[in-house]
Automatic annotation (TrEMBL):
Residues 207-364 form the Mvd1 C-terminal domain. InterPro entries: GHMP_kinase_C_sf, Mev_decarb, Mev_diP_decarb, MVD-like_N, Mvd1_C, Ribosomal_Su5_D2-typ_SF, Ribsml_uS5_D2-typ_fold_subgr. GO terms for molecular function: ATP binding; diphosphomevalonate decarboxylase activity. Performs the first committed step in the biosynthesis of isoprene-containing compounds such as sterols and terpenoids. It is found in: Peroxisome. Residues 20-193 form the Diphosphomevalonate decarboxylase-like N-terminal domain. It comes from Rosa chinensis (China rose). It catalyses: (R)-5-diphosphomevalonate + ATP = isopentenyl diphosphate + ADP + phosphate + CO2. This is Diphosphomevalonate decarboxylase.
Length: 364
């Protein structure tokens, strides 16, 4: 005999959000508290334009769901890791009444504890390859859950929750130039992101990303920075002596749209971050030969022009993020890259993404 259908179990409420990734120009590397994800220094990033490298996440709730589940790029993943649980718990504890009149659904604040969510997330760019998938991913997750559960917290409070999913994620809650303030409090309440300048500020900059390899990196950012904190003396010097001064200079460069200073600070900070990785025991190699060739190409060009035309920065992976001072320079840069790394040759780059409201161009 067929079981009677319980009409009260039939509804599903869904929210979809899209969040761009962000690329740090002054890097976060090293935690002073692993569990709360509190960093050893401030960091500054640029959030890419929406629709380029981004995560799309749909969160849904239904009384028919028996436990929380998540699919990443079409494959079910375990939510058992502390970070997902923390984000879910923090958002659930702030959930409010939800009343969807059209669908006739009413969820009271106190009902959320007994309801389960299903999460489906897609990255339109390589996952765990040094293009900040954890940043776009956790920012999008926290934002979407917050919308679903009618959480009233503002962006900066949401950023402190996203931070506990992945540190870099707190910066993706805002567009434009964003600073993650490391904070002083050991509970982490003041470790959050603030917007330094919105997306319209300095909009002549063009970001080009050269995907050198879309393979998953061998050392995750979390493991890499844990090893660095445990073994690198250079990190202590960087966090205490170098970054605090650099942060002030970077804020000034951004405020004044001073590309010379911006490019010098960006490149030198990327190089110091990779030096810190080399200073780790055992050493971590995130960049490869192609990454090094890209650095040389940009350095030689900048030197021959007398002033920087392009800044480069590499996260925890071999892929290059280049920031050109304007559109004309970006076109020249693409030409130089295509000349040096011809399509369908051994030195071929996987693809380019032009970060200024434009195209994904397959070079291969
Ligand atoms: P990346 O350089 O891409 O940020 P990380 O090592 O920092 O690499 O983080 C990769 C991890 O981030 C993945 O293993 C996964 O746990 C998490 N992640 C990636 N994409 C998403 C997503 N869309 N939603 C939630 N978590 C994600
Ligand atoms: C090199 O934020 O991915 O991209 O906090 O452990 O999740 P966890 O690490 P993650 O580290 C990012 C490191 C970086 C620099 C940066 O984004 O600032
Ligand atoms: Co990451």
């Amino acid at each position: 005999m067929a079981a009677a259908v319980d009409e009260s179990q039939k509804w599903v409420l869904m929210v979809t959000a899209q969040t761009p990734t962000n690329i740090a120009v002054i890097k976060y590397w090293g935690k002073r508290d692993e569990k709360l994800i509190l960093p050893v220094n401030d960091s500054i990033s640029v959030t890419l334009d929406p629709g380029h490298l981004c995560t799309t996440t749909t969160v849904s709730v239904s009384p028919a769901f028996t436990h929380d589940r998540m699919w990443l790029n079409g494959q079910e993943i375990s939510l058992a890791g502390g970070r997902f649980q923390t984000c879910l718990r923090e958002i659930r504890s702030r959930a409010c009444d939800v009343h969807d009149k059209e669908k006739g659904i009413k969820i009271n604040k106190k009902d959320w504890d007994g309801l389960h969510v299903h999460i489906a997330s897609f990255n339109n760019f390589p996952t765990a390859a040094g293009l900040a998938s954890s940043a776009a991913g956790f920012a999008c997750l926290v934002f979407a859950l917050g919308k679903l559960m009618n959480v009233k917290e503002d962006q900066s409070q949401l950023s402190a929750i996203a931070r506990q999913g992945s540190g870099s994620a707190c910066r993706s809650l805002y567009g434009g130039f964003v600073k993650w303030i490391m904070g002083k409090d050991d509970k982490g309440t003041d470790s959050l992101a603030v917007q330094l300048a919105d997306e319209k500020h300095w909009d002549e900059l063009v970001i080009i990303i050269a995907v050198v390899s879309s393979r998953q990196k061998e050392t995750s950012s979390t493991t890499g920075m844990r090893d660095t904190v445990e073994t690198s003396l250079l990190l202590q010097h960087r966090a205490k002596e170098v970054v605090p001064k650099r942060i002030l200079k970077m804020e000034e460069a951004i405020r004044n749209r001073d590309f010379t200073s911006f490019a010098q600070l960006t490149c030198t900070d990327s190089n110091q971050f990779h030096a810190v990785c080399l200073d780790t025991c055992p050493p971590i190699f995130y960049m490869n030969d192609t990454s090094h060739r890209i650095i040389s190409l940009v350095e030689k060009w900048n030197c021959s022009e007398g002033t920087p035309q392009v800044a480069y920065t590499f996260d925890a992976g071999p892929n290059a993020v280049m920031i050109a001072r304007d559109r004309k320079t970006a076109t020249l840069l693409l030409q130089k890259l295509l000349y040096t790394f011809p399509p369908n040759s051994d030195a071929d780059l996987n693809s380019f993404v032009l970060g200024d409201k434009s195209i994904l161009k397959d070079a291969g």
